Amino acid sequence: MEDIFSDHPPFEIRMPAEQIVPFVFNSPHSGRVYPEAFLSASRLDRHSIRRSEDYYVDQLFDASPHIGAPLLAAHFPRAFIDVNREPYELDPRMFEGRVPSFINASSMRVAGGLGTIPRLVAENMEIYGQRLTMEEGLDRIDRFYRPYHDRLRKLLVKTHSRFGYGVLVDCHSMPASAQAGSRTRPDFVIGDRYGTSATEALSRLAVSILQDLGYTVSRNKPYAGGFITEHYGRPARGLHAIQIEINRGLYVNEQTFEKTAGFIGLRKDLSQFMDLLTEYFSSNYSDVALAAE
Fold first, then answer.
1. Fewest C-beta in 10 Å: which of 64, 134, 262, 274?
2. Is 263's pLDDT higher than 60?
3. Residue 32 CB partners (closer than 8 Å, separation 6+)
């Protein structure tokens, strides 16, 4: 397969001049670089294929380096490969060729068309007009998925080594309403895998700060966190991971994907949120750790 990201790095790490807080921010679904080869293989137009993006989430959290924490952001789109999945959640029906025995073809995410290499974008739109080769699917995992997680893992190991613990904040966005009943969703959802990926004090702190900023917030409903939160969150080892979902209605037109007037204010509030979350949790971590024991 040609080097489809030869003109653009598949992801980037925005590092602070010095990491002064034990936090790492991650934006795995905000990539908006769509290679021509990928678009040519898709049955969707350039607009429709973007419906799975977490629009501009990397920009909403771009104050991260200024508060002393790195931000890892994907440039490849979620529709191309989804790093918030197990490495081999693959649908055999999407591929030609022999299917390796180690793939996970039975997960609920694969059944829903949203595996490591997605079959669908939002609103159940099929991405491909024909099957991919199995070699191409495995190549994407080797060239994009594995390097991304390698860098994320190294950031967390380095953070844990330096501070004695570490916190991963996995940053996402969600549709403004649930399609089934058009129910309006809260402004934010904080997910901690029902208390298994982070100490409860961290989740409650995140909820409290956002509420004090004037937002409606829920915890673990309807999103408790995906593979990244579950995989990296090990509170007993001093590694905490939470997922934050932002209601897209706060800052983007979900039909045109253009930023609305709310984007600037939300970005400012999220900068304050990061500052307060990292400062308070860092300065009180010894008390938090003791309370968790």
1. 262
2. yes
3. 50, 53, 75, 77
Please name the residues in contact with 127: beta carbons below 8 A apart, sequence gap of 6 or more.
Answer: 42, 43, 44, 49, 79, 118, 119, 120, 121
Average the pLDDT over 171-192 and give the result.
85
Assign 2 a pLDDT band (cuts: 50, 70, 90).
very low
Assign 283 a pLDDT band (cuts: 50, 70, 90). Answer: confident
Relative orientation angle of helices 200-212 and 285-292, to the nearest 10 degrees: 130
Helix runs in the chain, H state only: 36-41, 57-60, 108-111, 134-140, 146-163, 200-212, 227-232, 262-283, 285-292
CA distance 207 to 99: 43
d(CA 243, CA 168): 8
**How far apart, in whole angstroms, are the C-alpha atoms of residue 37 and residue 7?**
13
Phi and psi angles of residue 176, each rounded to the nearest 5 degrees, phi first: -70, -25
- Per-residue pLDDT at 290: 44
Helical ranges in 25-98 per DSSP H? 36-41, 57-60
pLDDT at 141 over 60: yes
